[in-house]
Amino acid sequence: MLKSKTSRWAAAPYLVWMGVFIVVPLFIVIYFALTGAKGSFTLDNMAQIGRYSSVFARSLILAAEATVICLIMAFPVGYSLSRLRVNKQHIMLMLVMLPMWMNFLLRTYAWMTLLENNGLINRFLGMFGIGPLQMINTAGAVVLGMVYNYLPYMILPLYTAMTKIDDSIIEAAQDLGCNTLHTLVKILIPLSAPGIATGITMVFVPSVSTFIISRMLGGGSNLLIGDLIELQFLGNSYNLNLGSAMSLVLMVIVLVFMSFTSSFDESEMEGVM
Amino acid sequence: MKEENLIVSLKDIVVEFDGEKVLDGLSLDIHDKEFVTFLGPSGCGKTTTLRVIAGFITPKSGNVFFDGKDIADLPPYKRHVNTVFQKYALFPHLNVFENVAFALRLKKLPEPEIQSKVLNMLSTVGLKGFERRNINQLSGGQQQRVAIARSLVNEPRVLLLDEPLGALDLKLRKQMQLELKRLQRELKITFIYVTHDQEEALTMSDTVVVMNGGKIQQIGTPEDIYNEPCNAFVARFIGDSNIIDGVMLKDYLVAFGGNEFRCVDKGFQHDESVQVVIRPEDVEITTPERGALIGRVKDVIFKGVHFEMHVDMEGYDWIVHSTQASKPGEMVGLNIGPDEIHIMRRTEV
After folding, report:
1. Number of alpha helices (DSSP H) and beta strands (DSSP E) in chain B
2. Which of B23-27, B221-225, B265-269, B345-349 has the lowest mean pLDDT?
3. Assigned domain for B291 exists
4. Of the segments A28-37, A132-141, B72-81, B107-116, which one has the largest average pLDDT value?
5. Which residues of chain A lie closer than 8 angstroms to B90, CB-CB?
6. Whole-number mean pLDDT of chain B?
7. Choice between A260 and B245, residue whose per-residue pLDDT is larger
8. B18 & B151 share domain
9. Is A180 an interface residue toward B (CB < 8 Å)?
């Protein structure tokens, strides 16, 4: 009795925190999104978002591209990691996480100096008479920034899911007639599904709402939803109501997306460390 | 190369892990439709041998022949062998039916054929009605049956079994032993079975291959292995034995324990130093006056059918099985008939 009472109270500080700093602000966002400058109810803000549909589309497409690239790159890495001996696994995992310990802005800034027209890569290519290539301020640079920053979040859940696949299961598949492709499609991918779902969520969600990456690497022509929202709150086009409406729509998009990936596998968040 | 009825042939197989020789020039012929058991302590190379045949390990040198053809470079999925793994290795995302149907679907057999083959095989292993079950809803014994069905439905020429009963309790293990033997007889295919349990090996096998240190110690029928062990390792590994140093005086006469005994072995050198193997149940206990050897009883342990007695005879601890118990501390005589004495050449173990 005592135990259950204590455990119930243990969460109290967080519940207060959540109420004050998450639930209340959420309602404030909803309030602003559904009211005009004078505070009366209106759907104008929502209607205005239609004008920015190309930005929303670009955000979704670039985030989806980054997610797919991360998945394709991370899958073999996660598999190799999971087959290593345990002590080597720890070393390799540290290497995977190492970039995450570096400041996010610094990492992205480093890419700017690499990709610039007179940056390191173009200077290197120049030595062979190639270029300069336009790399910075392109959609490709934004996707690159997303992949670079969020790749570990794809590798880790995939690796976690794959460590649960015993070697003998893969051997059994080969024994029963699977070549490498069959083993991948019929055994590895289905059994890593929880990790795939978690990884997709953990890369797609931050990618779709980022604004730093697109601003630093995408220039003015690759505005994303995040940049648009930032402009409404901190930029020239100061409009709290429109910004709130955009945030709300983005949230709904993310929620729809999450429910899709979680229906894809029950134990979706299993791989989160 | 092809010999009558030979299905698997290993020639001078060497396997190394991290520079350590796990199989050291192993050669072995396995006949078709035989129940062969690899028996030995853990680390003796028995599982490695099985994995070489399955194709999971490529030997450093040596040849693997299957039905007369060298298959050393053939990947596992192209070999006509299937494996039942120690931990069953069932596919957790598929139900019982789909696990068994796995190989058939890969072969793209027509659906009605898959249906009938899988249902047939499930009823053969006693799992009729379990088709839609989840793998993790099954007991260990049921999972084992699914694993066996999944391999057998493929109609392999050879079924490899890697300690498949290790995780089951004793009663279930005994029952599965008999069932495996029945399956092997009914389906008329070769079973290669790996175990460290000598009783299991003796119960099920047509041929037992005793292994130690990456080498084959002895190949023979269970009776041969038990009654005529070729060296001290085999004699110790297969049941309890008394192994005593002796001298072969001449044909049919051996001396050990300070006495001379008639025996049935010959062909040794004059006064050759040998080892004598006597099974505990072959020693007759009698009064000290009538015994060829005399010792003092140290322990008496009741074993159900018999008593196990340890008799100290000039420092050597004899194990004797008898239906009648002597008292600890009592002096007894031991007699051994000529048929019960088995002479082995000394091995440099």
Report:
1. 8, 20
2. B345-349
3. yes
4. B107-116
5. 169, 172
6. 90
7. B245
8. yes
9. no
Contact A232, A184 (CB under 8 A): no
Partner-chain residue, chosen from B54, B87, B107, that has the shortest CB–CB distance to A175: B54
Q: Mean pLDDT of all residues in chain A?
A: 88
Q: Which of A175, A182, A196, A267 would best serve as a mutation to test chain B binding (most B beta carbons within 10 A)?
A: A175
In a shared domain, residues B81 and B153? yes
- Got the DSSP string for A200-266? HHHHHHHHHH--HHHHHHH-GGG--HHHHHHHHHHSTT--HHHHHHHHHHHHHHHHHHHHHHHHH-T
Contacts of B290 (CB under 8 A, 6+ apart): B333, B335
B254-259 long-range CB contacts below 8 Å, 24 or more apart?
B254/B341, B254/B343, B257/B292, B257/B293, B257/B313, B257/B314, B257/B316, B258/B293, B258/B314, B259/B292, B259/B293
DSSP annotation of A41 reads B
Is residue B1 one of the residues assigned to a domain?
A: no
According to the model, what pLDDT value does residue A41 have? 86
Homologous superfamily of the A53-225+265-271 domain (CATH)? MetI-like (1.10.3720.10)
- Which residue type is seen at B157? R
Contacts of A193 in chain B (CB under 8 A): 93
Boundary-marking domain end, from B205, B232, B259: B232
Domain that holds residue B244: 240-345
The answer to whether the Cβ–Cβ distance between B85 and A177 falls below 8 Å is: no
Confidence (pLDDT) at A273: 33
Could you tell me if B13 and B78 lie in one domain?
yes
Q: Quote the tokens at residue A181.
A: 């492709």
- The encoded tokens of residue B81 equal 């062998």
Look up tokens 């109290």; give the residue.
A12
When pLDDT is cut at 50, 70 and 90, the band that residue B347 belongs to is low
Rama region for B210: left / alpha / beta (φ>0; ψ in -120 to 50; rest): beta
Residue B16: Cβ-neighbour burial (10 angstroms; 0-12, 13-18, 19+): middle
Q: Which of B83, B87, B92 sits opposite A175 (nearest CB)?
A: B83
- Chain B partners of A176 at a C-beta cutoff of 8 Å? 77, 82, 102-103, 106, 150-151, 154
Residues B120 and B182 in one domain: yes
Comparing CA positions, the residue from A249, A262, A185, A273 lying closest to residue A55 is: A249
In a domain, B129, yes or no: yes
For residue B75, the chain A residues in CB contact (below 8 A) are: 174, 179
What are the φ and ψ backbone dihedral angles of B84, each rounded to 5 degrees?
-105, 115
Q: Verify that B72 and B196 share a domain, yes or no.
A: yes
Task: Give the pLDDT score at B115.
Answer: 95
Six-digit token string for A36: 């005009």
What are B81-135's pLDDT values in tens digits? 999 998 889 999 999 999 999 999 999 999 999 999 999 999 999 899 999 999 9
Model ipTM? 0.81
CA-wise closest residue to B232 among B271, B277, B281, B264: B277
Please give the pLDDT value at position B324.
Answer: 85
Interchain contact, A177 vs B150, CB within 8 Å: no
Residue in the structure block whose two tokens are 């670039």: A62
The answer on B221 and B173 residing in a single domain is yes
pTM for the structure as a whole: 0.81
Structure tokens that stand for A155 in this block: 């590798």
For residues B134 and B197, state if they share a domain.
Answer: yes
Find, in chain B, the residue whose alpha carbon is nearest to that of A179: B77
Spans of all domains in chain A: 53-225+265-271
